[in-house]
Structures
1.
Amino acid sequence: MAHVPVLLKETVEALNPRRGETLVDGTVGGGGHLSVLLERMNGGGRFVAMDLDEKNLSSAREMIENKYPQAEQHWIKGNYADTLATLKFLGIEAADMLLLDLGFSSEHLESGRGFSFLKPEEALDMRYNDSIGATAADIVNGSTESELENIFKKYGEEKFAKKAAREIVQARKGKKIKLVGQLLEVIKHSVPSRGRVNPATRIFQALRIAVNDELGNLERVLADLPSIMSADGRVAIISFHSLEDRMVKNAFRDLSKTGRAELIFKKPAAASPGERRINPRSRSAKLRAIKMTSKAGKIKANNKK
């Protein structure tokens, strides 16, 4: 399944790429956004491409690396939450552009790691970086009922979190829940159908977020923005559910109120009807963007003293 970059036109508009600048793509995925942004930079400048998934990173590198030989390139298997530390390690003072696409890529649905409830035979893994950390199966089988309920409520906003947690704990007494299909069977008896939306949608979202600490990662990078970005640096963040969007909205609002940034869009950009038809994944996407100010640069300089 080919990854289609979401809100591409709006992202390019927000980041306004220029030749000679430094671009950080913290979630490079299939490389769709990065490739177009580099075209607008006329292949010049410098970029840091990051992804937790080795396969995604390799695929994007294969597509892009030789196409822009004049650009200074850094390909990093890593977490966008560590952007500040990564820039320091590379000796890069600041980024002029930062892009984060917080949705999991289409490639993950084909990864065999249990991201999709359409593949019941797959193992419940859900890790972006499949070499470290607990899997979804570890959480499902090792958490208490109250811990599972909290995960489903907090990360999935699931109304039937308590019942789902209770059913999971009961089911795993007989046999550990290791496959997607096993979890789906349990959810079927605890979460009512919602029209065409699979009843497992919110539970799977919650597990994916918990496995990869997605909200914790976002919180870290948002706090570091004044130190990551140049004085007029642009930040574009695409989110796909309300929890992430709320965090981005609040962080951008606070930076704006204190004069450290200006909102590029007063309201989040959303996909057009045409894009939603072509790419159903874009239906829930929201893009928020800011431009840092010289005041942010002064704060960053003061922090270095």
2.
Amino acid sequence: MDHDVVVVGAGSAGYAAARTLAGGGLRVAVVEGARDLGGLCILRGCMPTKALLHAAELRHAVEAARAWGVESGPVRVDMRALLARKDALIADFAGYRRSQLEDGRFRLLRGAARFEDPHTLHVEGHGPLKAGRFVLATGSVIAPPPLASLAGSGVMDSDVALGLETVPGSVVVLGGGPVALEFAQYLARMGSRVTVVQRGAHLLSAMDPDLGEELARALEREGIRVVTGTRLVGVEGEPGRLRVLFERAGAADGVEAEAVFNGLGRRPATSNLGLDRAGVRLRASGHVECDATQRTSASHIYAAGDCCGPLEVVHVAIQQAEVAARNILAHGGREEMDGRCRLVGVFTDPGVAVVGMGEREAQRVGRRVRVARYPFNDHGKSMILGCQDGFVKLVADAGTGEIVGGACVGPQACELIHEVVVAIAAGMTAAQLARVPHYHPTLSEIWTYPAEELA
């Protein structure tokens, strides 16, 4: 064998696997076929989108400051300066990751990869590479449009939207997931008239309905139109004057805009790897099939990150990669992913964050739970901040009182949720959380109210 382990993909999951494996003394190679090193999160995902959202939040805050008597002139955004700032940050992040990948701990090969047999990977420009074990960490790509008309001019995806120097006067955003909603609010706060068109009955359809419904009300108060329960028919017209056609409640409907944002999701990047030659099965969705140890149907091949799911978020990708690597180092170890702390965040304003088991899931699996909520419009610190949309929610086992889930729609939701993450990881009951001291006035003390109610 040329190497003990070959990691396919150099994003967050791939680097985490390679770092852990090399640290354990194995001979490791990392193969990356993309033009740029860094992975989705750094180059086109988490980091650039949050940079743009921060700029939009600053503009919104300046305009909202008038309520406090803080006056300013008309707020103008220099889009070129904004993009330059974003690009400089991304270049810094990517440069650091590139230095980590090239520091000599493992061999880095640039080129597209495809399995020739279970132990041989052909790397473009380098030839065959043999290894005893493999870790698949190829990530995801933007899903192809579900309708041919969505591939036309004037329809943009997240990659295009990250580089917009001119914000369209009006945009229809297709989709009601995190990416679609974050870009919807960014575009709206930069001056676009935005309409969100969602197939499901509520936004964020993977979460409890009350979360998406609360966010929809807040977005609509900000001027974003939200249309749910639709069946997309197509897009007609030309750039600058497009019409999105859909059906709603059995009737034909539509909305016009200068541009359309396709936020209908991503798909795993697994189609060109020759996985059938390696004995690796795929699910119907295209995701790599693997168990809780991250082992695939081929016992010597593991997977981590977006290519296998089920959550396409960076911290999960890193955890999966480290679990896979430790199992390889343990010669077939059986360490499993801890599913109790499944964590998802949406960086809108108000934000949305969930961890663990929701009400709908508890009902589906037949688990008896008790639920308590508390609104931000009755909470001192959020009232001072003028952030009164939303609520927090705790889900606890009806018998033991152990906290099994939590949710937040409100200010700094993606920060506040970590208090519940710690509680779930530690196996705390609602009564134990209620007894934890919280400083006043803070946003985080809001968790004590549902905890006290459950206790």
